[in-house]
Each structure stands twice: as structure tokens, then as C-alpha cells.
Protein: Pantothenate kinase 1
Amino acid sequence: MTNLDEMEYNGLLDFEGAELCGDFEERNPPISLPNQSSDGALLAVDIGGTLIKLVYFEGNEEVKSHGRATGGQLRFVKFQTSRLDECLEFIRSKRLLYGRGLDTGSTSMNVKIKATGGGAFKFADVFKEKFGVSLDKLDEMDTVVTGANFLLKKIPNESFTCMHGKRTPVVVNQQNLFPYLLVNIGSGVSMIKVMGNRKFERVTGTHIGGGTMFGLAKLLTGCTRYDDFLKLSQQGDNLVLDLIVKDICGELVCQKQGLSASTLASSFGKVLSSRRKLSDYKAEDLATTLLSAFTYNIAQVSFLVASLLRLKRVYFGGSYIRGHASTMDNISYAIDFWSKGQMHAIFLRHEGFLGALGALLSNLNLKNDDMIFEDSKESEFNNDSSYADDDKLTTELSEDSVFPYLLVNIGSGVSMIEVIGKGKFERIIGTHLGGGTILGLARLLTGCTSYDDFLELSQRGDNLTVDLTVGDIYGEHGYPKIGLPATTTASSFGKVTSNKLSDYRAEDFAAALLNAFTYNIGQISYFVAKLSGLKRIFFRGAYICGHAKTMDKISRALKYWSKGEVQTTFLCHEGFMGTLGAFWSYENMGIHDLAANDFIKEVLLSAPYMIGKAQVSPSMNLNMKNESSLEEEVKRLKHNNAELRAELERLKQENIELKSALSKLQINNKSL
Ligand code: ADP
Structure:
């Protein structure tokens, strides 16, 4: 059996006439099954790293009174995974384990609950103890794909696009549904190429997901409820913390060069220069910044993966979306912006329940050999700090053989440039999660103000106190089916449950930040290089030069993602090449032209930015400038200038103090 049409009449589930019921603009509307006539217990659970999703069938009232089944509804509920007991109580109170023919009050010993997600493995014993039932454990990717395909094929009005807050239903062309990219945004993110029913490949994923955003949100905003956080994010202004292109080159230059002044250059990039502490920021501004930073990153990685696979339709699932208009708007806008209108972001009304629904559908007795599962085994990033063995490169590179390559400049944001020959280059894309983001967040979470302090702190930290690993979700055996060992990070900051900074150690935050963002830069660089057919990547920028640990992590990320296909080299101003220990001048690399104005342009292609709720395209935005905004700009520049002078003074003073401390140390040393 390979398609849903063949599957649906096996006596357990009958989807004939299935449709959304009630007001389907509501969250997770029930699905009516008018012909359902099963006597079996119809319940499935998806136990994820953060949430438990439960789908169950509730018969119509007359069904209950006559003891015959004549239809009912599929219902959807969620619980926190940390509160499994509430979920168990719900199952008990609703008598969900008793089939309709078994209304005796005692549980049938041969009832098996269809279960998916890592918790199906981890918590199987709890279900056995509490109810005496076993969990029929189903593969997470398989159920997510089955659930998505079912909704898309069988439930009218399930999928929609969302632009400028307006939802437009998508009429799914059944002949033309496949292939598509399914991006499931849960605690972490999985990206799956779906070619048919049970025909799929988990192409990649990212550890920067919903758990990362909400973990950081708890710490920075104090929110403990996701919906409160989303509400807060509606009221804030991200320009208080984010650096946009205008902040780097000024509005006048933007106008002169025809640049988009409002493009996001570096999320949290203003934090370092402002010298404000966490308590000086408004929770709503922090919330808005967090939501846009992580939503754009997920959208960008999705766009790159879809481009690599040449897929035009990207369906988004997972509870991260939560039917939240701004989140969907940001994703749609970003996908549209980067793909120049060629790709479409599509959402599902039951976005968080794909896995649970897929598990329920497994009642349909699908044969396992129908499933094509071609995941490339993902191996763990290990923490051993020896460098990747790219040393060969130093001898292989010559001026002629070096081109073309990808130049990744890690400044406050990250820009990526394809260098074709001497002085010949083309900007490709950038990311707004760069050095400014790492240090900005480090400043807010740990109070440290320099990259050296941050690195020093991170060396002593253990990211596993805040990062959610595959083992935390699946248990000690990890997720062997796709080769993910228990120690792999599934979601950076995904283990953060408390909203008190003092419950964690600053050094652990630093270690987790370094991992999260350097691996992300490595992953995006790899996708961009692959997309452009480039086999060499040169990294440069103040945030990596001379910092062995950062270079090491980027090397590892590249090696991991590219499976050794791409060579990684670091370029540093002082002739220090860290990993390679050799010097390449910019002139030799053909990038000497990349100064001042060109750098400004590089930044352009980082993340798009929407001002408030209204979406303003970069070009529209430029046309809106007037005389008074120019005056304001001059005022702002003057103000910045004064701030920079003060900072310079402070640094000079610090320099004097450090020198005197050093000479004291030297004197002590001598006398010893
Ligand atoms: P998982 O299967 O890993 O638990 P989900 O698809 O359930 O993943 O998504 C979890 C993510 O959804 C969280 O990391 C958070 O970003 C978001 N989320 C939505 N609703 C909630 C909620 N009520 N509590 C916590 N996180 C939520």
C-alpha cells in the first residue's frame, strides 16, 4: 500500500468526508470524521523535547448513547513534556484508552498507544506503569511526513499562505503535490524532502530552533509562557537592539548608493556599543528582536536548502509557528525576498500535530517496506579541540589556483562574497546572526564586554547544562535510525526551563552561545558555497581572527556539513593564520578592493527586515526619506560620534591601567 486512498478503508479509520469543523480560523480546529465507525481506541501521542501533542477521536453524543459509532471528531491537545502527569491525567479522565466497545472502566491489556517523538522511547515505562499499556513506537520523521501528506491531500482548507497578516487558502494540486520541502520547527528544526507518501529524505536540520528562541526568551524577557512571549513580541521595537544597514553606513550613504537602509545587518548588534545592561532594556523590545532573529535564520536556512534541492514549495510545520501572524509573515517575507518571489512558504492549520496525526494514521497498517528512508547519517560535533586537518591547503594554494572561492566576512553580521578572480567578486548573501549577535547576547546573559573575555568564559563552560541533546529527548541510545548519538545538540538553549539567569552559570551560557552561532555560520557558509559550486571558503573578520576556539568550531562545522568536500581557511590581518599558520595577503587573494563602500554593499544581502507589522520593501522604504529624516540622521551621527569619542577615552584609560598592571607583574616576576 503506498497511498492514502488505498489506506483509508481498513476498518480502523475512515476519512471519507473528513473536513475541518467549527470555526476553522481557531487554533487547531477539530477534524470531523462523519463515517468513522471504529471500536478501537483512537489515540496517538507525539512526545517531543518541549511539548506532548495528543490527537484523539471523540465520538458524537448519539454514538455514545447508542453504543454505535456514527461519526465524531479528531481533537488536538498539547501539554508541556515536563508535565507528563497532566497528559496522563487527561488520557485517564477522558477515558481515551477504552475502545467504544470496551466501556467497562478497565483497560484492555492489549491496547497499544501509537506514539512518536523521542519521548515515546524515553517515557514508555511511565505509560506501562500508569496504565499497563505499551507504546507502539513510530519513527518521528515518518510520522511527520505521513501527517503532513494526509492533511494536504485529505483536508480541504488545511494549508494557506500568509502575507501582510492575510491568510490565503492554498488549493493543493493532488497531481503536483510532490516534491516539497517540509520544515518542521520544533525544539530543533528538521528539513525533509518529501517525494511521496512515505517517500522522503531528512536532508538536514538545525540546532537553532524553537527551543533556542524560547530558551533565550525566558532568560532575557522573564516570560515563562510561550503565548505571553508572542504577545510581548507584538509590542516591541527591534531597532533598539538590532543593527540595520543604516546604522553602519548612515542614511545618506544608503540613499546615495541606492542601498536598503532598513536591512537587518546584525541581530542584537547594537547591544555592545550601547553599554546598557539587560535590565535597561524593555522586555518587549528583547522579545521582538528574538523572534525576528530566529525566524529569519530558520527561513534563510530553509531557503538555502530548498534552493539546493530546487524545490519551490516549502511547507512549515512544528509548534514554533503557533498560528502566529508575525512569525508567518516574517517567514513568508524572507522566503519571498531571498528567492525573488520564486518560492512559496505554506503553512498548515495543524502545524504542531503532524507527528501525532501521522502516528494515528499508522493504525492503517502500513507496511514498513513502503517507506523509503534515505537519511545521510548525521554524526556528532564532538568537543575535542584538535583542529581539522586542512593543513595541506597551505602548500596547495597558489595565486592562480585559488579562484573561485567564497569569502565569508564575520563582522557584526556576516557577509558572503563569491570571489572569481583578482578584484572580481560578487556579493551573494549574508546572515544577521554574526559576531555582534554572539557578543550582544553574551553581554546580556553574562555581562562580558569583549570577545576575549567571552572566549575565556566559554572555555570553562559546559553547554550541556543549557543545550537540549538528542539523549535528553530520546534517552541514552539517541536516535540511531538517523545516526544521531545521544550527545548531539538537538536544540541550543532548549533545556532552559527557568527564567532566572542566576539559575545558570555564565560560562555555560558562553559555551552554548559559541557553539550555537559558530555552527550556524559554518552551516550557512557551506550551503552557500555548495549552491555556488565553490569548494573553498576563506573566513575573515575581527570575530574569528586569532581566536583558535572559534576557528576550530567553524572548521569542524564545515567538515561536518560538507563531509570534507569544502576546504576552510582563515585570513587574519596581522598575518596570523591560526589553523594554517601561514600568511596570505588580501592582494594575493584578489579581495583588496573589498574596502569601505563595498563592505557596505556586502551587508545588504543579509536578512530582510520589516518595520513593525507593516511590511515595507527595501525600495519602498528608500523613497520615504525626506529632509527632516536627513536632519535627524546628522543629529544621530553627531551623537554616535560623541559616544565613540567617550569610548575611545575609556579604552585609552584602560590601556594605561593594563600597562601599569603589566609592569607591576614584570617587577614582581623579576623579584621572584
Ligand atoms: P518538540 O516536538 O521538539 O517538542 P514542537 O513542534 O512541539 O517541538 O515545538 C516546540 C517549540 O514550539 C518550542 O520550542 C517553542 O518555540 C514553541 N512553543 C509553542 N507553544 C509552546 C508552549 N506552550 N510552550 C513552550 N513552547 C511552545
